Amino acid sequence: EPDVTIVSGLKDTVVFEGDDVTFRCQVSHENARDVEWKLQDVALQNNEMNEISVEKGKIHTLTLRKVTEQDIGTITFRVGPYTSTA
């Protein structure tokens, strides 16, 4: 099975309190497993505040809904041994 790598990494984003923000990371192969999103080293789950999805098989997205000051920090996307941060 080929190594899944990050083709296009996360971009730093400035957002206002109460707004939604979306992060995108493109990987080299579809159906990547061992994928993880984190905010300040805390793993994020798909729920009403965090929408985690995959577009076109390779573009992994994380949308944080109605961000607050507590959401300030580093977002990390990890696939296997590779990471991207913003």
UniProtKB/TrEMBL annotation:
It is found in: Cytoplasm. It comes from the Eukaryota. The keyword Disulfide bond applies. One of its GO terms (cellular component) is cytoplasm. Signal peptide: none annotated. InterPro entries: Ig-like_dom (IPR007110), Ig-like_dom_sf (IPR036179), Ig-like_fold (IPR013783), Ig/MHC_CS (IPR003006), Ig_I-set (IPR013098), Obscurin/Obscurin-like_Reg (IPR052385). Keywords: Cytoplasm, Disulfide bond, Phosphoprotein. Residues 2-86 form the Ig-like domain. PANTHER family: OBSCURIN (PTHR35971:SF4), SI:DKEY-31G6.6 (PTHR35971). This is OBSCN protein. It comes from Syrrhaptes paradoxus (Pallas's sandgrouse). The lineage of its organism: Eukaryota, Metazoa, Chordata, Craniata, Vertebrata. The gene is Obscn_2.
